[in-house]
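S.,

As promised, the S-adenosyl-L-homocysteine run. Input:
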Amino acid sequence: MKTLHIHKNKVDSILRRHPWIFSGAIHSNTEDLKDGETVTVEDHNGNFLARGHFQHATIAVRVLSFEDIEIGEAFFIKAIGNAVQMRKNLNLFTETNTICRLVHGEGDSLPGLIIDFYQGVAVVQCHSIGMFTSIPAIVEGLKNAFGTELTAIYSKSSDTLPNRAEVVDEYVYGSCETPHLAIEHGVKLHIDWVTGQKTGFFIDQRENRNLLGKYSKGKKVLNTFCYSGGFSLLAIKNGALLVHSLDSSKKAIQLTEENVTLNDFQEKHGSIVADAMEYMKDLPEDYDIIVLDPPAFAKHREKRHKAIQGYKRLNAHAIRQIKPGGLIFTFSCSQVVDKSMFTNTIIAAAIEAGRNVRIIEQLHQPADHPINAFHPEGEYLKGLVIQVD
Ligand code: SAH
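Predicted complex:
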């Protein structure tokens, strides 16, 4: 195993257990290293600092351990076992909820690895080549944690590790027909990790969808950026009068309609294929509740200013047109737009719309998407429920 040395003045963040080591911090020559190699990291005096996966990129090392231990099958069995146990301790697996994120990268001290679980099937998504080459050990970790509860593991990293011939999406254990049935807060969902976005579903909004349910009784709801209709289903299950789901993707609306039919909710549902930004300019109907859950408007800091303008415009349209006393569930999953920036943007939208707005709920990512305290960058999902007078 190769050893890399860190510049004398760059060790502090590693000592604070931040799991990323940037290429600029590395003193050693890394030319001979291959992407994905496990490396040992030492300070200029040769003291052990960390061990992790190397990649020729800005984030050069993703740290897997700050202790001098071997990163092999036993490591993954233990780390995945811990992650699964944490979710079991939080009672996240129940009869009415069979969907859960099992591993959330840095939040589970496994940077570069995402594993989502859909009623017996694990979908593995790697963000580093080191994790991709560790898949055999990850499979052992999952089998060990679940035993016979696990029917299949699907590896899906061609979106996150593009242009690499070795990265193929396939079952690496068992197999399962898609779409696959799973349950979230009592509603049935068809999940398709093969053709769907990300791992097939946006698990991170589970508790916020449940909260929408609590406010939906007797209400008319517009769910924009609906993808497979999760918010709409929870609203109808909890007594909404009528829900309209909107997405610019025909495929997403098709998924939504299939899920609506699966739950026998057709009578209470209508769908709209449209660009949300355009549609929101002039709503043809009145709504009591509007959900705004756009994709990340900014993936990088340079795009942040434009993203904020986008959030402001979208929210101003909703605030201007919602029924008096109505609620807006508004979200941002852009990591570079932090909580206070997002709140300020919504306040700016309220000023622009010229109506009184109260913040009644402050929302975030759920417990199965934990934030490692030493990696604040892991906080990405934020939301507000606002009431418009
Ligand atoms: N709220 C969803 C997840 C949203 S993902 C859930 O709970 O599962 C973001 C969705 O926004 C995707 O389905 C994407 O197709 C859609 N989208 C992206 N740009 C859009 C636009 N301009 N107008 C409408 N929908 C858009």
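The first strand starts at residue 2 and ends at 5. Residues 196 and 211 are 25 Å apart (CA to CA).

- D.
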